[in-house]
Structures are given as C-alpha cells and as structure tokens.
Amino acid sequence: MYRKKLLKMCLVTTLAVSMAAANMTAVMPNQAGVVQAADEETKTVGVNYWDKENNGQAGEGKVTVAVDANNVNTSALTDVPEGYELVSTGDVAINDGWIFVEVRPVVQSVTKEIGVNYWDKENNAQAGEGKVTVAADAYNVNTSALTDVPAGYEIVNVGDVAINDGWIFVEVRPVAQTTGTIINVVFEDGAGNNLGGGDFTVDTDGDGIFNTSEIKAPVGYTLDVKGDQFVKDYTGKTTVLKVTKVNKGTIVNVVFEDRQGNNLGGGDFLVDLDGDGVANYSELSLPVGYKLIETGDFFVKEGNSYKLILDRVGSAIIHVLFKSEGGKNLGGGDFFVDPDGDGVANYSELTLPEGYELIETGDFFVDTEKTYEITLNKKIEGTIINVVYVDGEGNNLGGGDFFVDKDDDGIANYSELDLPEGYELVETGDFFVNAGESYTIELRKIQKGTIINVVFVDEDKNNLGGGDYLVDADGDGIANYSELELPVGYELIETGDFFVKDGEHYTITLKMRETILTVTFEDTEGNVVATETLEAGVAGSPEETHHFVLGEDFQHPEGYQLAEGVDQITDIEIPYGSVGGHTMIVEAVSKEEPVDPENPGTPGNPDDTQESQDTKEEADNQKAAEQKTEDSKTPKTGDNTPVGAAAAAAGVSLAAIAAVIAKKRKF
Questions:
Q1: In whole angstroms, what is the distance from residue 662 CA to residue 667 CA?
Q2: Which of 163, 208, 526, 605 is buried deepest, with most CB atoms within 10 A?
Q3: Is 102 helix (H, G, I), strand (E, B) or coil?
C-alpha cells in the first residue's frame, strides 16, 4: 500500500511540474477565485454554498462561465452539497470571483415501509405477507409493532428482527383452534345496571349443553343462574344474565403508569377480601413486563381510583438517531437500555457508528415514546461512501453507507466492505473514493452444493468419461441424476434421486441411444419386396446425422436392382439416436438365355445351328406371304406405315408411362 502511495505521489508531482512548465506563459492570474486562460473564452468562478437555516457554510464548489460574464444562473450549478437544495433560483452576481448561493437542508423522510414475510415454522411454508411502518433509519423492527399477523397464527419469537433489503422474516406457528359455540351475554345487577358482557365460548365438547361456570362474571359479582344450560337457548341472540354482588371484598379502579407518566393500562380489581378497608399491592394483576416500586398494604374505599407507578422488568427499547457535528445523518436504530428498569439509562449502553465517539456522556432519563437525537464526534479521518451491490444481470443485492479509507488518502480497498451473505467480489484490490459518492459494485454468488466425482461406463463396462460435478445445491445430501451432464449419444438407465457425499466417487452405467433405420423395398407396382432394419451401432449427438449407404451398409434384395428411370437416394441420413424409415423402388433383374460362343449372335445349342437357320428362313418366307395377302385385302388409305412399326411406337409410349408412374409412387 505504502509503495503504491509513494509511486502515486511521485507521478502526480512529476505531472504537475510538467504541466506547470508547459503552461506557464499561457495562464495568468485573474481576480481571486478565478482561473482564466489567455487564449480561452471561459473562466472558473468559486461558489460559496451557505446554509440559511443553520447560518453556516454548507460547502464550496466551482462553475465555468463565459469570460465576460457578470453573473451565474443557478441552473449551471452541478455540485450542490449532498443533502441540500437551493433556496432560490435565477441569476447570482459574481463578486471578486465568487458567487454566494443560499441552500437549506432537504427534508428527509422520517419513516419507511418494511415488508413482513410470515413463515410457518411447523409446516415450513409461507403463512402470508404484511407491512409495518418504522423510522426511516431503523435497522430492525420489534415484533410488538406487527399488526397483521395472519389469522390463525401466533409469533414464535418476540423481540427485534433485523431488516434485510426492505424485509423482515418472522416465524409463526398455527394457533390451536378453539372448538365450541360462541354466545353473547350482557350482565345486569338487581337494579338493572349494565355491567358489561361480551362473547363467550362454551360447550367445547359439542354435546349441546354447557355449564354457567364457563361464563366469567364481572369482578366482584356472581351469576344468579347456576348449572347446565342448553346451547340452543343462547345462540343467535344476546342473552341478559342477572348477577349479584359478592359481599366480601372492595372493588377499586387502578391506573398503572411508568416513571415518565406513560399509561400502562389498568382496570377494576377486587381487593380487601376480608372487608377491613386495607388491601395489599400483591392483590393486583400487573401489566406484563412491569413490577411494583412500592409494596405492602394501602387503604381502599369502594369505587375509588388509584394510580400506581411501575418499573419495567428488564431493559427498555428506545429509538436513537445519530448525527455528526455538522448535522449529517449517521444512522441509528432501536437499542435495549436501562436493564434495571429504574427509568435511567447511560449513554455508554449505546452502540455507536464506527469511527465516532460521544460528545455528551453520563445518564439520561428513558422515554420509550421519544426519538433521541445524539450528536457524535468523528474520531479519525476517513470517508463515508454509498455502495449498491448488483449481480451479473444488474439485479440489486442491497448495499448502504460504508466507512472506508481510514487513512484519508482517497484510496479504499474492496476488502473494507461488508458483502451480502452468499456473495463474493468480482473485482478486488484498491479503488479511488470521494466522500458522499455512490458506487455500484458487481458481485457473484458463492457456489453451494456438493462436489462429487463421476465415471460413466456403458453396459459392457467401457469407460465413457466423466469428471467432477457440482450437485445437491440445497445441501440436503440428495442429488438427482438429471443434474449430471451425460456423454453425447448416451442416456441414463437409472433415474431419480441418489444420496451424495462431498468428495465421493460414483460409477454410473449408461446406455447408448441407438440410431435405427428401416428400409422398405417396393416394386414399381407398390408391392413390398423386402424390408431391412439397420442399426448404426455408434453414439452421436442428436444434432449430427449418421449415413446408411446402399452397397456398404445394406444391399438390395437378391434378384432385384434399382428401378431404371427413378431418381433415388442411396446415401440416407438420419439424426443420431432417432428411429426412421426409407422406401426404395426396385425391379427384377431380366433372365437371358445362354449364348453360343462360336456364334454369339445365335442363342441355343451349337449343334442345332443349321436347323435353326433353316427353320428361321422358312418362317420368314411364310410371314412374307401372309403379309402380301393381307396387303391385297387392306383398303388403300394413303398411309403405308407397317403395323409392326406402329406397335413398336406404342410399346415405347407404354414404357415411358410406366416410368412416370414409378416416379410418382416414390415421391
């Protein structure tokens, strides 16, 4: 770090000296607060920002204007101190190279709304969501402030809950459901005075009968009606029940308060059961979390009201807002103080922001309804910056204000920041900082799960590769085979879940996705001559194809050949791992008679050559005589084309038609 700083200082000094030498003749001093270049048309004017409400300087700034300007419009100001706003806008006169601009503190929101995630602990599921309003600078929420707990649930743990990214997580559990029937009653004394009443749950066993002992009479009174009652006589209406005052005891009204005068509740109490006019404080039911200051006996009189001062049992919760000596908000929150409950706390019980110390020390009175604003002194020089954390997709991961750069050299290190749980820095090392500025820092999620080693083999135990795999992201010790990346062209034999342990070795058997092609051979009339099923026998990616070639991978049926005049595919492509079919058109191979080797032009036995020749000549003569006779009988039409030529032409036409039909059948 120190070598880095020394190098930086040397570079800055060298640069400054070089720039000064290069510009010494080009820059000349103007009036105070103004820097003006001889060959430029602008000048820099100083800005004095004055806090009108606190009558003190809020900060300084600069603005660039035309060299001949006499005033500055406030719309050109870009460095208004953070937390302030302009009092008025418009032109401000330049005086001796400066302008005087009045500002005032921006009113900060005093509250914020926090989301509440109610989590059913017993069923491990969300029970609902809610909202709660707290102080704008609060870091946690006390469960006593929650008013929208889902119906049928109760809070598992009470107290403070930390705020995380605008939400709090509160565990709840189902409340045991009360069975029975609800009836409504009103109590009256003998004089007809209304003594209150309400809803009561009776007949919890559901037999339609309840006992009046299930109804609680007003303090100091007893029900006139006794014993069992039918529920049907009380449902769907309000029933008036007569009560009689119990002769023993005195009914008094008591109001409880703390030492600061805050009302803690109270009510009517039946005391002094022996009727001697003297009661004891122990006969009173106190508010939860409080204890008596005064104990022993006290005089009572029927109908009188009494005020009792109580102390808390345990610590109080107060809200504190810390500010710097310059009025800057330093945060705060709720704090437990005054553990002895005497209403007096000490400043030393507070946890202060890092880098600050108390100006005022000693004791102070506790008021739980008050927000305490406490001014602190900065212990050492440093810089407070605002940081926003985002992931690689730009999603907001939270952030806040951080105290960095404790040696105040303008350079901080990323290690000085507290990161959100489960994330780590993408970039590390040093970075430049300016007080009050906001910085967006990218994080990446720390990979969680179990690393296992897998070797894939085929059904013949041949090694297909493998490697290390990150599985079981939820860390429950169970992974699924679908989390593995399989070798190309293979698929799982066993699927579903399996137990895993970090660093363990697993051998998994796979089967090849076979590539199958069925070739069907048909003649020109569409009759199936033969079929052949082919298998590639090798693995491959479904995005690639396997070639089945006629003459290499399969042959046409014996005694057949590809039909002439029909365009056909003999190199058939099919994607790996798929099943397909292909049809080919064939025709029978023609059978020729043996040829005489000494007379290639004459088929048959060589010994019969002369006889065949004589027979042929005799047949030709007979045919010529018949043709001559036929010609003499045929009328002359002017067309002397021989019948044989016509028949030959017709045969050629039929062959052409057959070829066309065969092509159509293929396609």
A1: 9
A2: 163
A3: strand
190 in Cβ contact with 242 (< 8 Å):
yes
d(CA 214, CA 228): 10
C-alpha–C-alpha distance, residues 460 and 76, integer Å: 80
- Cα–Cα distance measured from residue 422 to residue 370, given in angstroms and rounded to the nearest whole number: 37
Q: How do residues 386-436 score in pLDDT, each as one tens digit?
A: 999 999 899 999 999 888 887 656 788 999 899 998 889 999 999 988 777
Per-residue tokens: 71:
């005033």
CA–CA dist 484, 443 (Å, integer): 27
Helix-, strand-, coil-residue percentages of the chain, each rounded to 5: 15, 45, 40
Question: For 141-170, what is each residue's pLDDT tens digit?
Answer: 999 889 999 988 999 888 889 899 899 999
Question: Can you name the residues that pair with 386 across neighbouring β-strands?
Answer: 401, 438
Both tokens of residue 522? 């048909």
Beta carbons of 103 and 51 less than 8 angstroms apart? yes
C-alpha distances in angstroms, 354 versus 137, 330, 378?
Answer: 16, 10, 9
**Distance of alpha carbon 410 from alpha carbon 488, whole angstroms:** 54
What CA–CA distance (Å, rounded) separates 477 from 637? 103
Distance (Å, whole) CA 473 – CA 282: 58
At residue 228, the 3 state secondary structure works out as strand
- From residue 607, give the alpha-carbon distance in Å to each of 592, 600, 610, 618: 20, 14, 8, 19
Beta carbons within 8 Å of 147's beta carbon, 6+ residues apart: 130, 132
Q: Compare 303 and 480 and report the one with higher pLDDT.
A: 480
Residue with tokens 């032009």, as numbered in its chain: 601
Q: Which residues, 6 or more positions from 180, have their beta carbon under 8 angstroms from its beta carbon? A: 201, 202, 203, 204, 206
